[in-house]
Amino acid sequence: MEQLFDLALLNTTLRVLTPILLAALGGALCSRAGLFNVGLEGFMLLGAFSAIAGNYYFHNIFLAILFAILVVSVFSLIFAYLSINLRANVIVVGIAMNALAAGLTTFSLRTLFDVKGAFYDKEMVGLPKWNIPMVEDIPVLGPIISGHTPIVYLAFVIAGAMWYYFYRTKNGFRFLAAGENPLAASSIGIRVRRYQYGAVLANGVLCALAGAQLSLGQLTMFTEGMTAGRGFIALVATMLGQSGPLGVTASSLLFGFMEAVSIRFQGLALPTHFTQMLPYVVTIAAMFFFKDKSFVKDAQKQSSSSR
Amino acid sequence: MQLQMDNITKKYGEFSANRGISLSLKAGEVHAIVGENGAGKTTLMRILYGMEQPTSGAIRLNGREVSFTSPLDAIRHGIGMVHQHFMLFPSFTVAENIVIGNEPGKSGRFDRKHAIQIVEELCGQYGMKVDPRAVAGSSPPGVQQRVEILKVLYQGAEIIILDEPTGVLTPLEVQELLQAIKHLSKQGKSFILISHKLNEVLEVADRITVLRDGMVTGTVKKGETDARQLSLLMVGRDLEELKKKPSIPGEKVLEVSGVTLRGTKGKPILENIYLDVRAGEVVGIAGISGNGQSELLQVVSGLIRSDKGNIRISGTDVTGMSPKAIRERGLTHIPEDRYVWGANREATVLDTGIMAHHRRLQQGGLLKQKELKALVSQWVSKFSIKTGSLETRTQYLSGGNLQKLIVARELEQGAPFLIAAEPTRGVDIGAMETIHGELLKRRDGGTGILLVSSELTEILKLSDRILVMYEGQIAGELSAAEATEEQLGLLMAGGSIQ
Amino acid sequence: MNKLTKYASPLLQPLIAVLVGLLAGAIAIMISGGDVLETYTEAWKGAFGGFYFTTNTLTRATPIILVGLGAAFAFRAGFFNLGAPGQMIFGALVAALVGLYMPGPGWLVCIAALIAGVAAGGLWSVMAGYFDARFAVNLLISTLLLNYIADLFAGYLVAYPLKDTSGSAAMAQSAMLDKSVWLPKIFSGMPLHLGFVFAVVGSLIIYVLLKRSVAGYEIRMLGGNPLFALYGGINRGSMMIISMFISGGLAGLGGAVEILGSQYRYIDGALTSADYAWTGIMAALLASSNPIGTMIAAVFLAALQTGGMGVERNTEVPLEVGAIIQSVLILFISARFTYSFWKRRKGIKSHGTAV
């Protein structure tokens, strides 16, 4: 068993948890703004695809990520307009966004690259891996922390920044207020919609980064449906972490670790089917320990809010 | 004049909520606005506070015409509003709730220590006490209201609008509030007080304006009027005295013994409750809302389970039974919140109306459409429920009409025991008279009624016996004949009477 | 006037959505260098150009209708069951197993396989319902995640213990069902099988059930306001189990008829790559969970797919253009713009003073 659990496993954990963490932080922003975003999966998929497309056309990793952010932001705006301005059912819009992302990426894969299933090009360069001087020489910790893509480090910086924003700044305070009681917030002149738009757009940027890490972080390729439910796992991470940056980071760590273990198991003689199941099983199991707000409260809120 | 509202008219489509209303306010004055539900009080205040724009008419502040497009405009002009349903952020602290919108701190940082200091200074300046570090959501209603007033003062308000401020307060807290209003008006703050409680208005207001159907029916000075004249102006006619026959109590239809319910934090919500209701009597439960009345009703009707105790309906032990089973044993229930418990907004009037009747009028698992339709249309004419058709969505019914539909639905179950929770909350006087009349008719027909209401007048008017609930316990029992508002108020506030 | 808006407004919205969807499709076609009119003509021919293509479209619509009905049923009860893909897989897998290994006359095996498919899909679905009712595990998310588990589990079975070893192909698939257990075709030589009749009859039954039956009333009330339902004596827990079983059972039936009527064996990934289940969910959303509407929407969405295939055969435009039209459609439907606009205006009138 000792080959199973070693430092490389924890190194892998950091790499694979990043997309989940980024999307979950985005989900946390949305849920704090009162929007339960089921569309994380789709946004991430769009991000992954457009990062590859940007990389292919611009031959520049930085522009590729910028392009991904731009594309996902456009779709975030659609999401925001439908759910905030037109008051569509957020869950339905989220599902539709997922479907749109799946359709759009496969369509574009055919139209732009004339391939089915997956796109890969030798010319493309993935994200750089940073070996941090000094840190990489620290025993035990060094090999875990060092040697990741910038997005991995950025994810943790963002989590910290979000904590600071929520609990130390005036703007973050008002953001939380707008989410907690929109009616009261607007009665003192807080522009609730503006914060909601901000949350959805920021979520778009985070999901774009998450997607870029997926498609450019390890193999530099795009495969159809490559997010494989990570957006939904991120959603659970958001719920488990009660939409707080620290809690979300902790639960993303758990799910990232499970995915790393699942990847590690694939090297063994076991059928890969069961190892691939692991993250989903653990995620469902995790929901048993986190009690969702009872339906009574939700329904009460729904029925009385528009009175 | 500090504030002058001239000829304010507000139309929603063809409906006029305000019709040519004029109103003035002097510095340091307390001006009350009274009227029935739907008379246009709230609309007028929303206009003054920038939440709505008038269709026509002008607002002048210190002689200058102003127009507000948002509450922020109103706040900048020194107008603050304390809403009927508090506009607080429950998970935030008192200090955070007060300074929000104008938080202290440099370069975008929120300085919470400074916020606490500010709140302490405010408390000193205006002679109101709050703990700035307490969490707003777990503070009692009286404190929450003080937080709201302090927030408005912190925002620099000179004119403070109070919308139905005493609805959730204990009599003691009401007195504190009225004192605070007097105190602040001496310091030069002016108040607009919206209320339908005439005794409170008469105690604190300098002038009183009465609205009916969106129009001013009179403005009177303090000391030149009385409750009877005001209610005449409000309703437009003298109210009929309700004639009540003496009750003839029969068998026990409800027996509650030793019911205890613990909350999530271990604090008891209900503690060792004993009460019974006999056929042919109305037992009223008085109390400030939030003292366990809602939970008691939910336990009795099977919506939540108690931790201890027994409930019998018409002699059958129904403890722990499902709401369906309890209904089958002879309970029917006018719920306290018609939108939360009593109706499905998306459904048609017919569908909302047949709930629980649908189990009776069926054949082989299929609904008897014709009978059900006939039943509901019969209520519609009997209770004069205004609705487009039976296919109209429930959400388009006005509050009073929906309440009548719910009352009809529950009364027509013909069960021996009826819970009537806040049966007339938010309905106009006409609907109120209908509902009260029907309830008493049922009582005389032998139904046992458990009435819960936060309106003392309603309790006194309908009940044969009155129980007072305070902090999850029965604080006392009085017979209706000898009970007075003063005694009830004392019990409601946790006092005792000898 | 009142009658007109009553009947027109629910139709207006899907109509506008379809137009916008076709417009988005046109843009996609232009991007991929095709001729819009020609492409849409090819799409029409591929979907309804002649008897064969029409029955082909209806064959494709069959599992979509059944899954869509299941989704609509759960949505009506207020449960966001997004587990149709997994429920369908279990229905298909178990139907294939019964069809392969149960002894007895062909017609009996076929019926048993259908029933087993319903039970398998229903039970897989009930599991998520039970987790929610008993342990408050969010249904929407658990059903979504269970899809991946079901797919992997079925994939494992046909890749190892049940792998078809007769053929030389290395594909992960079960052995082929015996001809005697296949669902009969409706027209000889055409792909359309008896499953389509099940789907149509199913729509009618679900429609009547929801509209006229006691259980249907209770389910609608539960979906509209759970607290009102509880107060009126409707048991949420048992209703959840029942409606999740029916919902998953219909998805399972969808999988079973696809195996017994079209594919005759369980092929790993065949159901998911054809996207039957998600299309069914889309159909339910498109029709605001009305059973008859769901059936119509399912046929329309199936036509987009078969039309897309026609397009791909005869033009340079890829068939995924259908997927774009479909998701744009849903996006617009989800906005419910016409309806909410109408509601808001009406709402102000009656609630103006109550605020």
From TrEMBL, chain A:
Q: Which CDD domains match?
A: TM_PBP1_transp_TpRbsC_like (cd06580)
Can you list the GO cellular component terms from the UniProt entry?
Answer: plasma membrane
* Keyword Transmembrane on entry: yes
Stored InterPro entries = ABC_transp_permease
Q: Which UniProt keywords apply?
A: Cell membrane, Membrane, Sugar transport, Transmembrane, Transmembrane helix, Transport
- The primary location reported for this protein is membrane
One Pfam assignment: BPD_transp_2
Instruction: Give the residue spans that cross the bilayer.
Output: 12-31, 64-84, 91-113, 150-167, 195-212, 232-256, 268-290
Compartments it resides in: Cell membrane
GO MF terms on file?
Answer: transmembrane transporter activity
> According to its record, how does it sit in the membrane?
Multi-pass membrane protein
Q: Which residues form a coiled coil?
A: none
Database matches in PANTHER family? GUANOSINE ABC TRANSPORTER PERMEASE PROTEIN NUPQ, SUGAR ABC TRANSPORTER INTEGRAL MEMBRANE PROTEIN-RELATED
Write down what this protein is called. Simple sugar transport system permease protein
Which organism does this sequence originate in?
A: Paenibacillus rhizosphaerae
From TrEMBL, chain B:
Ligase in keyword set: no
Does ATP-binding count among this protein's keywords? yes
Entry's PROSITE patterns?
ABC_TRANSPORTER_1, ABC_TRANSPORTER_2
Pfam families given for it? Answer: ABC_tran
Q: Which residues form a coiled coil?
A: none
InterPro entries membership = AAA+_ATPase (IPR003593), ABC_carbohydrate_import_ATPase (IPR050107), ABC_transporter-like_ATP-bd (IPR003439), ABC_transporter-like_CS (IPR017871), P-loop_NTPase (IPR027417)
MF terms (GO), sorted A to Z = ATP binding; ATP hydrolysis activity
**What residue stretches are annotated with the ABC transporter domain?**
3-238, 254-496
What keywords sit in the KW lines?
ATP-binding, Nucleotide-binding, Sugar transport, Transport
Name of the protein: Simple sugar transport system ATP-binding protein
Question: What is the source species?
Answer: Paenibacillus rhizosphaerae
UniProtKB/TrEMBL annotation, chain C:
Q: Which UniProt keywords apply?
A: Cell membrane, Membrane, Sugar transport, Transmembrane, Transmembrane helix, Transport
Question: What's one Pfam family the UniProt record gives for this protein?
Answer: BPD_transp_2
**Is Signal tagged as a keyword?**
no
Molecular functions per Gene Ontology: transmembrane transporter activity
What highest taxon heads this organism's lineage?
Answer: Bacteria
The entry's cellular-component GO terms read: plasma membrane
Report the InterPro entries cross-referenced here.
Answer: ABC_transp_permease (IPR001851)
Record localization: Cell membrane
* Name by which UniProt lists this protein: Simple sugar transport system permease protein
